[in-house]
Amino acid sequence: MDGNRRFAKSHRMETVEGHNLGFEALAKVSPPLPSRTQNTTNFWYIQVLEVCYKSGVKVVTVYAFSIENFKRSKYEVDGLMDMAKVKLAQMLQHGDLLDRYGVSIRVSGQKELIKPDLLADIERATTSTSRNGDAILNVCFPYTSHEEITTAIRNTVLDYSKPLPVHQRPFSESHIKHTIRSRHLSVATSRIRDRSRSPSPGGASDMEDSTSSSTTLNVDSPPLDSTLGAKLDDDSDEELRSKYPDPESITSEILNDNMYTAGLPPLDLLIRTSGVERLSDFMLWQCHEHTDIVFLKCLWPEFDLWSFLPVLVEWQWRRKKDGERERVARLTARTAAKAKST
Description:
Elements: H1 4-10, H2 15-27, H3 48-54, E1 59-63, H4 74-93, H5 96-100, E2 103-108, H6 116-128, E3 135-140, H7 145-160, H8 173-196, H9 204-214, H10 224-242, H11 252-257, E4 269-272, E5 292-295, H12 305-341
Parallel strand pairs: 1-3, 2-3, 4-5
Helix pairs in contact: 1-2, 2-4, 4-6, 8-10
């Protein structure tokens, strides 16, 4: 949703009005399809969202507000927040599009930065549409991809800092090891205590016994107490590690589960308006080797059906071609394997 301010400036209107037109492009409820007696220009008002859901697209994500936008003037930020509140209410009041296609609303971002009254409306919208399970409208507000990735890593670290659930049994392996270590420690401590005692004045025989027994030890061997201490430290480290999840088990799938987009399918198509060819900190983690990225010159308030349809058709055509190539490759590999086996 980029280009609202430039659109407003080029049309000599207030910046907030440009944002309003941007929200209209997304939130306006589409009317019924035009009948034969209606003017065909009404067809322009069929919204991009409806085309997406009719085409089988299950998830639509829009970048509505960046965290960086808070650096703008208070007047503009407050106007955007008030506008989001109004448009959200309109979508719920006239939500036949959402109900018709079973669309649930999700809001992804740093919600603690949102005003309490707007946050309450967001919670109401997500709750009221949560029963819809056929498609998703995911609104990033306020959002940056760096903040999302940072939050996901932080949550993963917190999860791996929690001890694993312990199911203590009377004869479990850890219980037996702990008992044996305790007994060894008790015996070693008593030996060290006896050895450190001073001999009695007349106890020559005791001194001899002590000397003769001490000569059985290797001179180069480390003291008994230090060896035991090192062994106990190793055992303690091993026991401590067994109480927590292994950090080596952290995978990209685990990080995916901690992203705002957890549970959503991979990002197949990313469209950026306004003629700027950069991602601007949007869904950096979700982009992958098969993501198609399209940059359009039109500003977001100008983005309409005729801007979107060529992109969607070309993407579907390209996916069809990729599927055909994959099928040919699999068939070729299967044929080669059969020829080799014979």
